[in-house]
Amino acid sequence: xxxxxxxxxxVSTIKDQGLDGRTLLLVRRVPNGPVVVAVDAVGAGAGxxxxxxxxxxxxxxxxxxxxPTEASVVAIVDTVAWGDRPMALQEDSTDSGPAGGPDADKxxxx
Amino acid sequence: xxxxxxxxxxxxxxxxxxxxxxxxxxxxLIDPDGNDEKGYLVAVDTVHAGFRxxxxxxxxxxxxxxxxxxxxxxxxAIVGIVDQVxxx
Lengths: 110, 88
What we know:
heterodimer; A: 110 residues; mainly beta; CATH 2.40.50.220; 5-stranded mixed barrel; B: 88 residues; 5-stranded mixed β-barrel; 51% strand
C-alpha cells in the first residue's frame, strides 16, 4: 500500500460487469511516482491524498462483490506524521513530496 | 490497473485448453495523455476491444476475476474500453 494523489478520472462505458457503477480514478504515487488507474472504494475526489492498495488484495475492498482490479483507493488521508512532525498533504506540498519532514532526503522511500 | 492501446494480436494454436476461444491482444502501455510508455503486455480480451482502442488493463492474479477468466492461466486481462481520461 502507498500514498497517492488523485489527479483525474477515467470514463469507460464498455467494461467488465464487476466494474459497473465503480469510479475509476487516476492516482499518482506521491511525490512523483507512476500513475495507475485505481477503483474508488471510499468516495475520494480530485486532489485528495489517498491510500492505495495494490495487488490481489485491492479487490478485497469490494467483497463480497468480485471486482477485477489490482489497485484500489481504500482510504482518504487526513494527516501524515513524518517523524514527530505533522506533514502537510494538499496543494502546497504534494508536488514536492514531504520536503518539510525531518528526513526530507529520504522522500523517495515514501 | 493500467492504461494501454491495442497494437496487435497474438495467434496461438497449441495452448492451454482453458485459453481456447480467448482473444489475445498486444497492448502498448500509455500514460494518461495517450503517449506511449515503455513495455507492452499480451492480455486476454474480455470486452471485445479492437485495434488502436484505448483500454483498461488489469494485471496479476486479479486478472482471473475478469469475466470468463476464472481458473484460467491468465495474469493480464483487458477489462474496459476507455472513453475518456480527464486530468484535474
